[in-house]
Design brief:
Elements (H helix, E strand, L loop, with lengths): L1 E5 L10 H6 L6 H14 L3 E4 L8 H5 L9 H11 L4 E7 L5 H15 L3 E6 L4 H4 L10 H18 L6 E4 L4 E4 L11 E4 L4 H10 L2 E4 L7 H14 L7 E10 L5 H11 L4 H14 L10 E4 L1 H15 L3 E5 L5 H5 L4 H8 L13
Parallel strand pairs: 1-2, 1-11, 2-3, 3-4, 4-7, 7-8, 8-9, 9-10, 9-11
Antiparallel strand pairs: 5-6
Helix pairs in contact: 4-5, 5-7, 8-9, 12-14
């Protein structure tokens, strides 16, 4: 199994003043460095740095929800320098960056991290964010995924320093040779796809897919779709699905569940209502867009739930979202992993050379 965290680049990952008050200042770099070092202490594999360019809402900004938030490229550099083995995945929008920009950023971060940097491929889904870049409306999903295909083709060519890139496509043009450094091997590609077009793209190009189902039982059908789409794309191996899930650990039975329920109830506010529509569109989830799988309990309880999901649904990875975040909060999760190891569902990263 692989484990990571959805990086808290803002005061709160959920639109709640109550949650925001529990979390540290995201503009103090030491808070991020301490959390990165806690990731390695706990023996996580990676972290995902989500990113966007516009606030969710004025109400969200007032409580520190998604605003201010650090850029996924800028934050990746100190996290890579503060750690030795942690994978760091940055979100970069294909719609807002030319492929040459992404290729150059990626090559330099790959160099800085010794191969530990990865790219979360995002097209964009909010028109009011795209307007910052001069778009009146975002292109439709199929057009954006076609542009993303071109982006990958151009990047692959630019990373071959032995020849010029000559690309004149429907969406991008690139002619010439990009200077090094070049990645020794392609960085890890991930995508958080919910639509069929997105999952087909992911199955054709990515190493992992971040999935956000309402229930862990949905992992079975998600993995089946990825396997089918990967085979149709001519790939021998499908991307692994890593499920986004909330994590809250406390020492006493019942304590974490009670706190989690209280915190989720605090989302009933105007910022939460506006975010509901946005996240529902992203997840293609209209019934309960704020409902994610949850692991809330003691370390032993959470470990047993993970083991059960692995055996019952084939769950092979989790991207934890920490409603309450800090290095101390993450270190509460450390006792989970020896239990997983004894159950035979997890191996220490060092035993597999810290591979992705």
């Amino acid at each position: 199994m692989r484990f990571g965290i959805f990086w808290p680049g803002t005061r709160t990952l959920l639109p709640s003043a109550q949650i925001s008050a529990l979390n540290p200042d995201p503009l103090r770099l030491e808070n991020h460095l301490a959390l990165a070092q806690a990731c390695e202490a706990v023996q996580l594999d990676f972290t995902l740095l989500g990113d966007g360019y516009a606030p969710s809402s004025e109400e969200g900004t007032r409580i520190g929800f998604q605003d201010p938030g650090l850029h996924a490229l800028m934050l990746a550099a100190p996290l890579l320098m503060a750690t030795r083995h942690l994978g760091v995945i940055s979100t970069l929008h294909t719609t807002f960056f030319h492929p040459t920009h992404i290729a150059r950023f990626a090559a330099n971060l790959d160099w800085l991290g010794g191969g530990r940097w990865g790219w979360n491929i995002v097209n964009g889904y909010r028109d009011y964010e795209a307007s910052l870049f001069g778009f009146e409306d975002l292109p439709d999903s199929s057009t954006m995924y076609a542009a993303a295909e071109e982006t990958i083709a151009i990047m692959d060519s630019l990373w071959d320093g032995s020849r010029r890139t000559e690309h004149a496509g429907a969406h991008y043009r690139a002619h010439g040779r990009m200077k090094g450094p070049y990645p020794s091997e392609r960085p890890v590609y991930v995508c958080a796809a919910a639509s069929e077009a997105g999952r087909r793209f992911t199955a054709g190009h990515c190493d992992y897919m971040f999935a956000s189902p309402r229930s862990l039982a949905d992992v079975v059908s998600i993995k089946a779709d990825l396997a089918r789409y990967a085979a149709e794309a001519g790939r021998d191996r499908a991307p692994e699905a890593l499920v986004v899930a909330d994590l809250l650990i406390r020492d006493e039975p019942g304590e974490a569940k009670a706190l989690y329920g209280e915190l989720m109830a605090s989302l009933d506010n105007e910022a939460g209502r506006k975010w509901t529509g946005q996240i529902g569109k992203l997840r293609h989830e209209k019934t309960a867009p704020l409902e994610f799988p949850v692991f809330a309990g003691t370390p032993a309880e959470v470990a047993e739930e993970i083991i059960a999901a692995n055996k019952q649904f084939g769950l092979n990875g989790l991207l934890f979202r920490l409603p309450v975040w800090s290095s101390a909060e993450l270190l509460r999760a450390a006792p989970i992993f020896p239990i997983l190891e004894r159950a035979g569902v997890w191996r220490r990263p060092a035993s597999r050379r810290h591979s992705w």
